[in-house]
Amino acid sequence: MMRTRIESHPATVGNNLNLLVTLGCAVLLGTAVLASVGRGKLFNQQNLLYVALVFYAAAAVLYLGFGIAGRESHVHFAWLATGVGLLANTLAAANRWYIAGHPPFSSLYETLLTFTLTLAALTLVVELRYGMRLVGTVTMPLAVLSVILMELLPADVHPLAPALQSTWLHVHVTMAMLAYAACAVSFALALMFLIQDRVPTGTFLAWCSAMLVVLYAGILIRADAAGGLAVAAWDPSEGREILFAKHTPLLVIIPGLGAVALLVLAALSVPLALYAFARWKRSDRIQEWANEAFFIAIFFQLVTAVVFMQRLRGGEYPSRQAPGLFTTSPAASPFIIAGLFAGLAVSLLYVMLAWRRPVLERLFPAADRLDRLTYKTISIAFPLLTLMIATGAYWANRTWGAYWSWDPKETWALITWLTYVAYLHMRIARGWRGRRAAYFAIIGFAVVVFTFFGVTYLLPGLHSYA
């Protein structure tokens, strides 16, 4: 019934969405201004990032609204919101540069600041230059997640470590952020191609479910047999993690969180199993059950995100490493929180696809054009990745006396580069086009995400500052 209503009255739905987004932005910005006036600080990095977050989120909602209702006004307002968010993001980066005395390249917080800025700029360029009006459906939620992660990461300004006091830092990180943003855009274009190439919706369901199963399995690495979950302790007075030893955070056990994550993992496994069973039986009815099970799993994800935030914000918890009770905070577990919200974003994108796929197919460019644009974008990203590795190796030799140390970040940067080498080789030498090339682009971006975030979280090394 709701679907019929939306199709019958797209103008009403479109106007209502524009109005709601405008009112939401006004309320959020007004709240921030009132809070800042009392402190006497209005123009600062934190407020600018908050403005960027509000407008990036507004852009994401409007791009999704365009995909659902097909109203041209949505994409125009989304473009405007992206531009305002980019302006605020740029001012925040400039403010950080002014306060720190160096470009924002020296920590994960600062590189995220630069990455988000570059991603928003490339989104506008691709939309204006090539008319890819829905690329923001993927890139803007990614920008929102990046800003949320920034808000949870330590933002303290520290003097540059000796290894970072080099002009090569600026060159190396600039190449990396441009390359990663281009890879993100190629990922969005490859997804759009697969939709336009009539990959079954059930296949997207299987991919989303599998990705979310892996995500929650990663969270459960820190679970214990009693259903608790180990997270870092947090000192609210100092605004940082409590360390048990050098570079080793003190871990506290929050009862029940592991069991909650396990419940979501089980709920996400159901649609994946039903999809496999539907393929085996060739049953559309079972496929419908898989979809319904996935919608239920979204509800579990939402509840889990709320429970995680509530439990991390309040209470004192024991630790196996030291006697006593300790507090924690969402800022002590930024990657877990970002992962939870990323899972919700992926789920909502799938809901849009399952609900409005015919509309999306009419709005997307032809599959051949999307395939060519994916190739062009990767052709831009690849030389940037090459320069990133080359400048990093030269800088490492000047700093540490060796071009290559097989540090985890270096190793995964090489794996990223080799993945895109394989893509270009298969396309140029073997003539790969279409789905196989799109799958390669998606795998490449997955490797980029692990290189950027996963290595920092799981495999710290010489690049632990980034």
Structural overview:
The protein is mainly alpha-helical and 466 residues long. It folds into three domains: 1-158, no CATH class; 201-362, Butyryl-CoA Dehydrogenase, subunit A, domain 3 (Up-down Bundle); 366-466. It contains 14 helices and eight strands. The strands form four sheets. A two-stranded antiparallel ribbon has the order 1-6. Strand 2 (234-235) and strand 3 form a beta hairpin. Helix 4 runs antiparallel to helix 5 and helix 9 runs antiparallel to helix 10. The radius of gyration is 23 Å and the shape is globular.
SSE inventory with pairings:
Layout: H1 2-8, H2 10-39, H3 45-69, H4 72-100, H5 108-130, H6 136-152, H7 167-196, H8 201-219, E1 229-232, E2 234-235, E3 240-241, E4 243-245, E5 248-249, E6 251-254, H9 257-281, H10 284-313, E7 317-318, E8 325-326, H11 334-363, H12 367-400, H13 408-428, H14 434-458
Antiparallel strand pairs: 1-6, 2-3, 4-5, 7-8
Helix pairs in contact: 2-3, 3-4, 3-6, 3-11, 4-5, 5-6, 5-7, 6-11, 7-12, 7-14, 8-9, 8-11, 9-10, 10-11, 12-13, 12-14, 13-14
Helicity range of the residues? over 70%
Tell me the number of strands: 8
- How many structural domains in the coordinates? 3
Spatial sequence of strands, sheet with the most strands: 1-6
**Within the CATH hierarchy, at the fold level, what is the topology of the largest domain?**
Butyryl-CoA Dehydrogenase, subunit A, domain 3
Determine the strand fraction and express it as a percent band.
under 5%
CATH class category label of the largest domain:
Mainly Alpha
For the record, give the distance between the C-alpha atoms at the N and C termini, rounded to a whole number.
Answer: 49 Å
The assigned CATH architecture of the largest domain is Up-down Bundle
> What form results from the Cα inertia axes?
globular
Helical/strand content category: mainly alpha
Helix count equals 14
Uncertain segments are 1-13
Q: Radius of gyration in whole Å, from Cα?
A: 23 Å
Output mean pLDDT: 84
Question: What string gives the helices and strands in order?
Answer: HHHHHHHHEEEEEEHHEEHHHH
> What's the story with the biggest beta sheet?
2 strands, antiparallel
